[in-house]
Design brief:
Helix content is 24%, strand content 29%. By secondary structure, the protein is an alpha+beta fold. It folds into two domains: 80 residues, NusG, N-terminal domain (Alpha-Beta Plaits), CATH 3.30.70.940; 60 residues, Roll (SH3 type barrels). The protein is elongated.
């Protein structure tokens, strides 16, 4: 017998839950959860795997108990954390970070891709809109400015660190 005092909501509201996983296996866990959900007809509108947060993935779901039962059978999934996660707590993961945001003029970088891979250079200019940086290679005889994409470099030494080293 059903209780008719409460009105059923016309549209179920999805909740965001966090699943603890084996570190380094977040993407595998998300893929396994997605395929199991499709087979068992569990509705999961979205899954978020973020490289900044190792060992956790976020699922948007309508039925937490079915998710909890399903992850028990997935080898890389450890458990589901209690409580729902408000969207504003994970919103910053949804907007992509700029490749040049953490690079500043004067930094020493290593080229990690392209024809100058392995070379070190000094950053001379940053173009935030195009996500490109201009560098001058240390090894070259004549300093020639080269413009590369921000994701093609890795910061070795920050400008502030270089200035501290000179003071000491």
């Amino acid at each position: 017998m059903q209780n008719t005092d409460f009105e059923e909501p016309a549209e179920e509201k999805s909740k965001i839950v966090s699943v603890k996983t084996q570190v380094g296996k977040e993407q595998n866990t998300a893929d396994l959860i997605n395929s199991r959900a499709n087979k068992s007809k569990v509705k999961i509108p979205s899954i978020l795997v973020t490289p900044e947060l190792r060992g956790y993935i976020f699922l948007e779901s309508y039925d937490k108990e079915r998710i909890r039962d399903m992850i028990k059978t997935i080898s890389y999934a450890r458990n589901m954390l209690e409580g729902d996660i408000p969207i504003d707590q994970i919103e910053h993961f949804l907007t992509p970070a700029s490749a040049v945001a953490k690079i500043s003029e004067g930094d020493v970088v290593e080229m990690v891709a392209g024809p100058f891979r392995g070379e070190t250079a000094k950053v001379t200019h940053i173009d935030d809109t195009k996500e490109e940086i201009t560098v001058e290679l240390f090894e070259s005889v004549v300093p020639i400015p080269i413009t590369v994409r921000g994701e093609q470099v890795r910061v070795i030494k920050r400008k502030e660190e270089q200035e501290k080293g000179k003071e000491e």
